[in-house]
Amino acid sequence: MLNPDYKLMLIAWLGVALWVGFVIFSNRKIHPKALFTLFMVELWERFSYYGMRALLILYMTANLVDGGFQFDDAKAFGIYGAYGALVYLTPILGGYFADKLIGFRRAIAFGAILMAAGQFTLFANNQTTFFIGLALLVVGNGFFKPNISSMIGRFYADGDKRRDGAFTLFYMGINMGAFLAPLTCGAIGENEGWQYGFLTAGIGMLLGFIIFFLASRTSVFQNIGLAPDEKPAKNVVSFVPNSILPYVAAAVMVGCSLLLIQHETVVDYMLGALAVIIIGYLLFQASKMELVAKQRIWVVVLLLLFTTIFWTFFELAGSALNLFTARNVDKMLFGFEMKTTYFQSFNPLYIMLFAPVFSWIWIKLSNLNKEPAAPYKFGTGLLLLGLGFLVLKFGGSYAKLGMVPAIFMALLYLLHTLGELALSPVGLSLVTKLSPKHMVAFMMGIWFLSSSIAHQGGKHIAKLTTVNEKSIVEGASFQNADIDKDIKAVLSEKTFKDKLEKSSVESILVSDAFIERLNKLNPQRQYAKSVVTIKETLEDAENYSGTKKDNIVKSAIQEFLSFKGNEVNTQVATFADYESLVEKSPEMAIVNVIKGESLNKGLSVFTMLGFIAIGCGIVLFLMGPFITRWMHGVK
């Protein structure tokens, strides 16, 4: 019997395959073949990127026994933030090298190879190769990401009416890959082992490279994307470089990225200094301009601040919100038990559904001469972002045993996506219109820098949600809760408090040393360990063989603390019966307090973010007339 997760995965792939076929068939006479080739290459690259992104924070924080590194939350958030920040920095250099030295084709191929190598390095599943893999992904993205978009633009002359449609199709490919990735890499990673999720992501990137390489050996790309000094006759991807410099630089960038990801606080200072220098330079340049240009630059700087706030909060999806989903969301949705990673598919799904709606709305309003100015679109985006967080807070009132119903997380991602659709498409277009012609490229680079700062800044917010079970046990809420006083006393002893630094409370409660200490403390009331084997999990194991089957059988065996005389040993029970037994056990009150504290901490931070985002949105609406006036007719 096929695993339900894999059934869902196959259905998703079938649906996307049919849609891709329809898109290509219906547009085959409108656009050049190169567009559809690059569409497929980008689909696989985004599949690789978002597959890895869905797994990364879960992999780093997973227990050693579950195949993870068991990093504490703060360390994992720091690594994730530094990785995300560098991913948005390296395209500045990758784009430069492609434009000046090696051309789009070699840059794209080189970046794809580096990213595939990075995913396969993560598959090795040890800490040394883990950081090397992240560094390869960072640099590979720098060579790949800016150049595939630029290459598409070269197939259309200025003013070509097909150009916007081409980028719309390309954007669709991005979101198709992003939608499939969590349902595929996530399903495989959570079911078979984290490293197999990374392997799947690597295979996806390799497929993208193969498609690009084979197309480059034909006339599909015409003479587009060749190196500046390369003759059209050499219409083949070749790794004999026009200049050795980009490849030497790539090696240096991998080394630097490796160090920066492991020492993520350095990235704080680096980006902080860079931001101060750039903003200072911008304002200095603006002071020398005539009034209209000066005020437009100030508008860009102001909106840059708000867009950085938006992306800082929005990009918590891969870090703090991902861990919150794993720990504090009841993942049963419409009768189907979701994997944690599946929630990462909501955003691209919503984009595919609602992007055409937003496009239609703006066109309709524009025809009526009622399309809102950019500040109001930005404000709407921030309001929707804030409402998403507040919906999650509202969902907390329906939480049971510290678990929020999944529907509220789905609604959060819906509102966040609608906010993205209101704000994101406006930004880049506005920068090109407001910037002086001689500064457009520089201003575009600054706009992308805001995403880098957002990832790095987001780690500090994510760290506010970290859960330390030792602190919870020592805290007033735990000590005042209706918990067995013997268990409280033993957990408060230094030996077991120290163990909480590296082990969960649940694992300590069923350890022989803990139970022995409990029984010595109170000989009149004895404790024992219960062992229950869950029937449904055993039945699921029959669908597999070998090591995978053995691991599922092991996971079916659950242990919990009981009073002596009430314990059960090696009993096979349904999951419902197991839950009933645990609810009557002395450890249930502890689990409830810990989950409750985790829930409250996360919701308090997300609520704060919600009000900040809404406040920023209101400020933009109030400043709208003033900002619009300083734009001097630019829409």
Automatic annotation (TrEMBL):
GO terms for molecular function: peptide transmembrane transporter activity. It is found in: Cell membrane; Membrane. One of its GO terms (cellular component) is plasma membrane. The chain crosses the membrane at residues 6-26, 47-65, 77-98, 107-124, 130-148, 169-189, 195-215, 236-260, 266-284, 296-314, 342-363, 375-394, 406-431, 605-627. Keywords: Cell membrane, Membrane, Peptide transport, Protein transport, Transmembrane, Transmembrane helix, Transport. InterPro entries: Dipep/tripep_permease, MFS_trans_sf, MFS_Transporters, POT_fam, PTR2_symporter_CS. PANTHER family: PROTON-DEPENDENT OLIGOPEPTIDE FAMILY TRANSPORT PROTEIN, RESISTANCE PROTEIN MDTM, PUTATIVE-RELATED-RELATED. This is MFS transporter.
